[in-house]
Specification:
CATH topology of the largest domain: Beta-Lactamase
Largest sheet: 8 strands, antiparallel
Structural class: alpha+beta
Number of domains: 5
Low-confidence stretches: 455-466, 468-472
Number of strands: 31
Helix content: 25-40%
CATH architecture of the largest domain: 2-Layer Sandwich
Number of helices: 19
């Protein structure tokens, strides 16, 4: 059997001290011994080298054997009973007898192992009544103190009374894990540490993570000799995770650190708040000192009490602050932005500063700065707003140390060290910013924080100087509290809504005025159009009358003169037709007649009768299928089909008989993919001269003609009139054509307006 220790002998240096594997030192402190058994077989897999000092059984004798073989059946029964009752998860300790010696054990599970740490039961025993009295005393602290600091001070004193340590400190971390001695109870002849700060490097990250897992840590003698842990060597790098161990050996750097402070023994209790390491109860003794496991639990209970009060006291403070800021928020929200109530009046309100206890505030709207209180100059506000809009992507942020974000603007950061920023527009620099000035403060450090780790000819070691080292902290404001941040965010959202509402109101008013102006203009144009068309028709009628009379009464008119008079008469006729069509087109958009059922088959058949002479003259053929009955305006629909049939006959080919076919789809169809409505589709097809498809849309524009006016007469208004009629019926009209083959006009009537 090859037995080997698992002591971690990695050399700690400047490059790996932050990653020092302190959870697997492979050794323990000598005031107890450790055994690790397999969770299924209870076979002893690990054993500390000092087991013989306590039980007369060496690690060589124990390793590889079952727990009952080494310590007896009763010991195994006690261990299994403790585990099966899940007492490991409680504060209960395992009391066990090994070879007629009484031990108090802590037991926890690590992977597939149960780790048992045993200490003699006779060390510093105290009676239960003393523990109860101390616990009762602490409960009275919660009622006898007004501030959290007072409470912590009493806890420090109470913990020192229970444990007997020379110094007990309540150690609080900031957001960067720099520590401050927040409260302290200390032996009268010792120098107090109250108010001193210690850099985050004094307690590195991996140590803080262990404090989160194991809430109590004890070192009974700084000058202890680590006891190696042994195992049967079956694989390389076989280790034992001691994260939850109470006997775990300590990092040599930490031991040296305590040596440099002159400390002989320590007890540390973690204070956890909102799943983060808030601080520590740190107990120092200047000579070796051990506590019984029961007394450690009593001290640990102090930590539970104080962490319960962190949340309660902090929430009470936040509630009081929240009440104050919410009152200011209600008052400032009562100031509504209107046409008459401008940003100048809003920014002057003192409640705008009170809602987050700021010293200054600025609002930037459309490159205009409105400000109140202690703020940067307008030019700097413009630059700052632009940078923050980019930095936050038009979002929000806050800081109590602006210089850490903008080191190049030191002058501005000295006057404006803290700010809360909220964008008011996702596409511009519009924003609201609250400001706080620099709050200079003197921080007393327990030694120079820049010299927490020293490298000399002896290698790597912690600092050995703990002399008072003072630092002046500048370019930093008082931190923003959560209620202040919440209230600022709430108002920024409210202001954004008010601004949007004001913009909408202003736009509505602008469009209302434009609508009224347009209505007046249209009315005037309609009157002018009616007057113009009416007055122009009168001279045209005279031209027609005189020219017709000359042609009928005068017999010896020269041929050229007669031809000119006929052309003049024809132009007057075309001019009159154009005026009538324009009048119809302009009046069409104002038509508000009620819809009624219209049989399109009857409409078309009536038109064929009315257009009989034109059809006969062209020898045209008009074919009509069964058409739907729709909801519409009869005379407009008659005008629609009259124009379409007339156009088909007018633009017929000279070499073939004109044929016009009017038909309809049997079932409703979809006009396009974007429009999911159903329509009844009616076709007007002909075999006339057709057109190029590139003109399919432009032919429906007013005054658009594709053919020479000499060959085909018309005003260019007909198809535009058709389009307007179809639109008034909620439909669509389109055309397809091929030159010299014909054209097809498609009319879509809404299916919900189809009667059958």
């Amino acid at each position: 059997m090859n037995i080997k220790d698992i002591v971690n002998r990695d050399i700690v240096n400047l490059t790996n001290c932050e990653q020092e594997p302190i959870h697997i030192p492979g050794s323990i402190q000598p005031h107890g011994f450790l055994i690790a058994v397999h969770s299924n077989t209870y076979k002893i897999e690990f054993c500390s080298g000092n087991s013989k000092d306590f039980t007369d059984i060496s690690h060589e004798q124990a390793l590889g054997k079952s727990f009952d073989t080494v310590f007896g059946e009763q010991a195994l029964t006690d261990l299994k009973g403790y585990i099966e009752k899940k007492l490991m998860l409680s504060s209960s300790l395992l009391k066990i007898s090994l070879f007629n010696k009484h031990f108090v054990c802590t037991v926890h599970k690590s992977d597939s192992l149960y780790i048992i740490e045993a200490e003699p039961a006779s060390v510093n025993e105290i009676d239960a009544s003393r523990e109860y009295n101390h616990t009762s005393q602490f409960l009275s602290y919660m009622h006898d103190t007004n501030t959290f600091k007072e409470l912590c001070q009493l806890v420090a004193k109470g913990t020192r009374d229970i444990t007997g340590y020379d110094r007990v400190m309540i150690y609080r971390f900031d957001k960067d894990y720099n520590g401050e001695v927040f409260a302290e109870s200390v032996r009268e002849d010792l120098e107090p540490f109250l108010g001193l700060h210690y850099p985050h490097t004094d307690i590195p990250k991996q140590a803080r993570e262990l404090y989160m897992q194991n809430l109590l840590r004890i070192i009974t003698d700084i000058d202890y000799t680590p006891v190696p842990i042994y195992t049967i060597d079956k694989s390389e790098n076989k280790n034992l995770d001691l994260s939850l161990s109470v006997l775990r050996s300590t990092s040599p750097i930490h031991v040296q650190y305590l040596h440099n402070m002159g400390v002989g023994a320590t007890l540390t209790i973690s204070l956890i708040y909102q799943k983060k390491l808030w601080g520590l109860i740190a107990c120092h003794h200047y000579s070796p000192k051990n506590l019984s496991p029961e007394l450690r639990l009593a001290a640990k209970l102090q930590g539970h009490f104080i962490t319960s009060q962190i949340d309660l006291r902090q929430k009470n403070e936040e509630y009081e602050l929240s009440q104050k800021t919410n009152t200011a928020l209600e008052k400032v929200n009562a100031i509504a932005l209107t046409e008459n109530h401008t940003f100048d009046e809003l920014i002057a309100s003192p409640h705008l500063l009170e809602l987050c206890n700021a010293s200054g505030v600025s609002i930037l709207i459309n490159n205009t700065v409105y400000k109140n209180g202690l703020t940067p100059p307008n030019e700097q506000i413009q630059k700052l707003s632009s940078w923050l809009a980019t930095y936050t992507q038009n979002g929000h942020t806050y800081t109590d140390k602006l210089i850490s974000l903008l080191p190049e603007y030191k002058d501005m950061c000295e006057d404006t060290s803290g700010l809360i920023y909220h964008s008011l527009d996702i596409e511009s620099n519009n924003c609201i910013i609250w400001y706080r000035p620099e709050t200079k403060k003197e921080v007393n450090w327990g030694g120079d924080p820049n010299k927490s780790i020293i490298k000399d000819e002896k290698g790597l070691s912690p600092r050995n100087s703990f002399k008072l080292w003072k630092e002046i902290v500048d370019c930093q404001s008082k931190p923003w509290e959560k209620p202040e941040l919440d209230t600022a965010a709430s108002y920024a959202y409210s202001l954004q809504r008010q601004i949007n509402l004001l913009i909408i109101t202003q736009e509505e008013e602008k469009y209302r005025k434009l609508s009224e102006l347009l209505k007046e203009t249209n009315s005037e144009l309609e009157n002018i159009n009616w007057i113009s068309t009416h007055d122009l028709q009168e001279p045209l009628r005279k031209i027609q009358l005189i020219s017709s009379r000359i042609l009928s009464t005068e017999k010896d008119i020269p041929e050229k003169v007669e031809d000119s008079i006929r052309r003049m008469n024809s132009s007057a006729n075309r001019m009159q037709t154009l005026l009538i069509d324009i009048l119809k087109y302009t009046r069409l958009k104002h038509e508000d007649s009620n819809f009624e059922p219209v049989n399109l088959t009857d409409i078309v058949n009536d038109l064929i009768t009315e257009l009989h002479e034109t059809i006969e003259e062209k020898q045209a053929e008009v074919q009509v299928d069964q058409l739907p009955v729709i909801q519409g305006i009869p005379f407009l629909l008659k005008q629609l089909f009259s124009n379409l049939i007339s156009n088909s006959i007018k633009y017929s080919a000279h070499d073939r008989k004109p044929v016009v076919k009017i038909s309809a789809e049997a079932v409703p169809v979809v006009h396009n993919d974007a429009d999911k409505m159903l329509y009844r589709l009616v076709y007007v097809a002909d075999n006339g001269i057709g057109f190029e498809q590139e003109y399919a849309e432009s032919i429906f524009n007013i005054f658009t003609r594709l053919n020479s006016s000499n060959e085909y007469k018309g005003s260019g208004v007909g198809l535009a009139l058709c389009k307007k009629i179809v639109q008034n019926h909620g439909g669509y009209i389109s055309a397809t054509g091929k030159p010299d083959e014909g054209a097809v006009v498609s009319i879509y009537f809404p299916a919900n307006k189809v009667v059958k």
